[in-house]
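Bug #77: duplicate submission created two jobs. Keeping one. Sequence:
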Amino acid sequence: MLEELWGNATVERPLHVLARPKIGRHSTKRVCFHQLAAPLLRGAFLEIAPGVAVCSPELVFVQLAETLPMGELIALGYEFCGCYPLEANRSGALVRAQLTTPARLSAFVNRVERMKGLRKARIAVQFVYAKSASAKETEMDALLMTPMRWGGLSLPPALANEPVALSEEAARIARGDRVVCDLLWPQARVAAEYDGLAFHGGRHQQARDSRRRDALIADGFDVVTVTSSQIDSVSEFIEIADALSRKTRGRTPVRPVSFLDRHLQLRHELRAFHHQHFPPVSPSEEGDA
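Kept job's structure:
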């Protein structure tokens, strides 16, 4: 893998290497060497071969905080703590394990010292939630739960992709003893379900989704379904967020005049990160997924 990275490095996409000082070593247009003076915590590197290590997800998060805008850094945290599919066109299979957790990210950024971007990393990590299953779910979750100061809609913290045990009646409807909610506010008994074409395109999957929603409703949960087009529409999404706020908090939030500009900026940054690292699936591929 290292040889492939070295060979594929270009002027436009150089390879960045963290190395110890060495006389005669210098960067080129294709390979940039870096040194780090700050003392690092145990676990900052993961050894992949004798004498060769890669930066841990926690260290990468702090390193990229120096250059990434806040929204992109939040998206990176969701990716590291999420369970995104390994293949874009096989969203129902090959779901990977989390690379880290919000707790581990938070512990690292709050203990490490003297690194550029550390202040921004310590702010962003507070808004990262675990177990997002896709880039689009990350957009939904981050837009809903990031504080207004940073362009989000300030909903209370929720559990993502959380299994819910069902009553006997609901289990008969769902044909299983538990279901998984995309977003769950357990105390308010409110769930938000992302209904994306790429993830829910088949008739069998649509039937399972319908049974899951019916089972949750039978157990007294208030279920709000959110589509991809609703996430993309600023006005529709804010209306959904207001409805969720009334269900979870009992009130509609009052937003400052500057909120819309901040919200649009957060949307732009989340979308920019995902378009760069997770290119959109074409309509034909969505139908085949």
